[in-house]
Amino acid sequence: GLLNDGTALTLYTVAVAAATGGGFGPAEVGARFLYAAGGGVATGAAVAAVVQFVRQRLDEPLIETTLSLATPFLAYLPAQEAGASGVLAVVVVGLWLGHRGPRLLSGPSRLHTRGVWALIDVLLEGFVFLLIGEQLPAVVRGLRDYPPGVAAAAIGVTVGLVVAIRLTWIVLPSLLPRRGGHCATTDPELSGRELVALSWAGMRGVISLAAAFALPETAHGAPFPYRDLLLACAYGVVLATLVGQGLTFAPLLRRLGVEADHDEVARQRALARAAGAEAGLGVLDQLVARQALPEAVTRRLRSAADGRRRRSHDALSRLDPEEDDESETSSQAYARGRHQMIEAERDEIVRWRDAGRLADESLRRLERELDLEEGTLPPP
Length: 380
Hints:
This protein is mainly α. The protein is 77% helix and 1% strand.
């Protein structure tokens, strides 16, 4: 999906440049697109390799978070300066480092980086919608040169085509003959209700609007033709899909009876947790064979790994359709009891702080330990 957006924006940028530059020959446009796309991908791959090399030699959460914030700009700016696609460069570096992230970042760095990016994500989304609202009066004023019927028809046709094209793109592959029981673009298990739900999930947002606003105000010394009407059409698509489809999406899913298979997700998570615990126990056996650990430490480590494996097996048994839903497994009982214990521990260390027996820095350290442990438990 990211590559799709990046490639589309690259092609769009090339098309605008060709339209405003006075030439739109297939060979010239094709060469521009290949250079922009290829240069963006190459720049992103090069920056990703350098950042990966640096990250492998860092072990400081603050520095690693700072580098993660700077990485998109390190990829975008050189590509743009070279006339290539900065968007594709950012997409490539993000995919590359995101895939290798589990091996590049330590646990503390990952927790720190995710927290910072979650905050930035919320702030950027809010800022984007503020910009959308701030630009709306200018778009409305630009429609004064068009008859109301023409503007309404253009917006309506645009919104209808966007919705219809997505519906066709989602449904059509399911109707094509399948080789070996599989279709290249559609999961063979998708039902008609699920296809309808997917087709209604095509909300458009800031990318569509940013692309429209990227149209230059003039071309060849004259106003860019129909720019205000194109902006209004883009606004219509954003409002119709975000507000219309967005507000009706949840009721539609309920009406269709489409919901996520939470049991399957929990089953895969439990199996992966059990496999991880087995791998850890395997390493522990190797350490014991080399007599690299004291016996008391070995018992503690084995107990912790056995606990994770036991919780996984409890979760799998709870997902067994023959299991009594009313019964409480040992894993559930453990989680319920541990939640209550953690809450009591929090209250106690806060009382220590209030009594002047514990510094604020030590309080935050202990709170972090409890928060991390609570995050590993099922919800109460």
